[in-house]
Sequence to fold (160 residues):
Amino acid sequence: MTRPDDNGKGEIQRINFDSIHVGDIINLNFGMVIPVDGIVLSADMLYTSESAITGNGDDDERMKETVEKCIECKTKTTVTKTDPRALPPPVLLSGTYVGGGDGKMLAVVVGDKSTYGAVKAKEINDYKIALANKPKMMTVVGKIVLAVLIVLAIIGRVVY
Fold:
């Protein structure tokens, strides 16, 4: 990831995506996965695919526009019955794949509060619950296996 430096010179510095803060401007390039939720500031034929986040199996590549362009065109994006996951053109969710073009975005939501962060946190929580229930499940399975072995031993003695 890159962002303008803090010394006011406008130079770009390379950073780890864990170091992104709200208000950082992030360069968007073909092939990257967007690490935070944000708003498009500039776009040059910027196409994104939100299928990894929305769960839509179809190739839902969409052209993204800047906030200014949307206001200029007076674009109104509303949630419809045909596409309940439609996002306004300037909104980008973390986990979205940049399928073409390039641009810049303003980081608005980062870390565990971002879309990807929330999904990741839920998966970790589900894993912890599964681990907590594992001893209970093993006890039940162990009792069932023991009962089956006892029945087989009894049947084996009766037959022989």
Q: What stands out?
A: The domain at 2-113 is CATH 2.70.150.10 (Calcium-transporting ATPase, cytoplasmic transduction domain A). The CA atoms of residues 122 and 130 lie 12 Å apart. The two ends are 73 Å apart (CA to CA). Helices lie at 51-54, 67-73, 115-159.
